[in-house]
Amino acid sequence: MPSTRPRRVALFVTCLVDLFRPSVGFAAVKLLEEAGCTVEVPPLQTCCGQPAYNTGDRATTRAIAVQVIDAFEGYDAVVAPSGSCGGMLSHHYPGLFDDDPAMKVRAENLAGRSYELISFLVDVLGVRNVAARYPGAVTYHDSCSGLRELGVKAQPRNLLGSVQGLELREMKTPEVCCGFGGTFCVKYPEISNAMVGEKSADIAATGADTLLAGDLGCLMNMAGKLQREGSAVRVRHVAEVLAGMGDLPAIGEPERG
Predict the structure, then answer these.
(1) Which of 139, 170, 190, 254 lies at a 20 to 30 A Cα distance from 178?
(2) Up-side HSE of residue 50: CA atoms within 13 Å toward CB?
(3) What pLDDT score does 184 carry?
(4) Are 141 and 213 in contact (CB under 8 A)?
């Protein structure tokens, strides 16, 4: 945790949010500003490099990391509405530069200032409640990177507990992977589909009408499976509900005219 309260915060938007669900980015900005932060979105940011990293292309990952490090220089904190992207910046960037001491220092500096959105709100800024309402029963999926690399578990549940009208119904196995895994679902589609099938059954067993999580990749994967099965469960990023934006069309639903 930084020694002084971070105020000037850069939002790492993430590729999926930028291309598929911009409302998650707007929700993140709203939550951060309500917590007292000045939020900026550096225009030169790119993908964090995780797809290249997961396929073993270290040269491309390093080149991407250099651009990201340049783009986010000087901010008190860098916040991503994604545990996987946050984990990439905070856990994997420094090791890319073991043969370059100067860049390794810069990567370590960025790593020390990088956070997943909900953990930043709760653990760093001390947010304990939000002024939001979401009537209905929800269940929450713990995305792998956020849970295992960043320790995101209780934080979203604590904030959801302050949302008026919301009832949290836990799955039997909320910590089990949904089968997305970034490039995993492309390399092993049959295994991925079997895994998300088990997840959809676990979701259905809760009786919840909404599925929440903190990573858009996982949410899109689960939303796709639920829709293919004809499920009426709505799927949203947790930031949207916490920011009071739960009336927007759910993931995969058509935009309202």
Answers:
(1) 254
(2) 21
(3) 81
(4) yes
